[in-house]
Design goal:
By secondary structure, this protein is mainly α. The protein contains 14 helices and two strands, in the order αβαβαααααααααααα. It starts with a helix and ends in a 5-residue tail after the last helix. The model has no long low-confidence stretch (mean pLDDT 87).
Length: 300
């Protein structure tokens, strides 16, 4: 009897993995192998000469990383990427959470209209959205400059104005995910709790900070980590709206910088090294965030 029970427990322990096996195999093919190839190329001398077969591929060890870390431009681009991604994440979360709260305060028809508009922005391809925003802020034909009387001011000429323009587009296409996810979480909070806080005289900001945000912390964790990953590896918006990184590379971020190294300069090994560095940074940020939450006793 005991043997039968032990066998049943072992079989039951493997059951979830059997259900997950197809997805894990698919992820292994689509994720693990490319990451392996990325890491492998970063340790090799792999340029156009090696791709064409003109020269043999040689092992460089950490040579590509040493070259990368000795490049001052890499550190400038890394700093710009971190600051830009942080601004995008904070702005996206602020807009998404504010609109999620607004959805709970409006009637059905305005709520439906806002949902459809947001989902339309979310479903718009990045290239299309970037092109539309470029037209809106065009110095000659864009309506924004005309409405605000900015004349022929070029948003993409200055470094900070170009980053600001890209940030607006990134937030526009990213906030719907935060809005819909947080709104679904708010709908799951018992209405009595919110009503009790309102009867006690709490403002909307106080209700969000002291009641809703603590209860929605697992959901906020998901949207924050997801936003960090998305915004740290922004490529299309920067490449399209600043024409490949701006004047003299003033608007480069790591993804565009890696593209330039790998494909514009045919230094595939350096481009791969940048990709590995980005992967490690994202892993460190995500794991560090999870560790902080665990120390606070949060359930993940």
């Amino acid at each position: 009897m005991a043997t039968h029970t032990t066998t049943a427990r072992r079989t039951g322990a493997w059951t979830p993995w059997l259900y997950l096996a197809p997805a894990l195999l698919l992820l292994g093919g689509l994720l693990v192998y490319p990451v392996y190839q990325l890491g492998l190329i970063s340790f090799l001398e792999y340029t156009q000469a090696q791709v064409s077969g003109g020269e043999p591929t040689t092992f460089q060890g950490l040579g590509n990383y040493a070259t990368l870390f000795a490049d001052e431009q890499f550190w400038r681009v890394l700093l710009a990427t971190v600051l830009f991604a942080a601004a995008c994440v904070v702005s996206t979360l602020a807009v998404g959470c504010a609109l999620a709260v607004l959805l709970t305060r409006v009637r059905a028809l305005p709520r439906l209209a806002l949902m459809l508009a947001a989902l339309g922005a979310w479903a718009t391809p990045a290239v299309t959205g970037s092109t539309v925003w470029m037209f809106l802020f065009d110095p000659d034909f864009g309506p924004v400059n005309r409405v605000f009387g900015l004349g022929d001011f070029s948003w993409t000429y200055g470094r900070y104005s170009a980053f600001a323009l890209v940030l607006l587009e990134v937030v526009w296409c990213s906030f719907p995910f935060v809005m819909v996810t947080v709104y679904a979480g708010i709908r799951g909070v018992p209405a009595e709790i919110v009503e009790a806080a309102a009867l006690d005289g709490a403002s909307q900001w106080r209700i969000w900070r002291s009641v809703l945000a603590p209860m929605l912390r697992p959901i906020l964790l998901v949207v924050t980590v997801q936003s960090v990953i998305w915004d740290f590896k922004v490529f299309t918006q920067i490449y399209v709206m600043t024409n490949g990184g701006g004047i003299a590379g003033q608007n480069l971020v790591l993804n565009v910088y890696a593209y330039q190294k790998a494909f514009a300069s045919s230094q595939y090994s350096l481009g791969s090294a940048i990709g590995v560095v980005m992967l490690l940074i994202l892993l460190a940020v995500t794991l560090g965030y999870l560790r902080i939450l665990r120390r606070r006793g949060e359930e993940l």
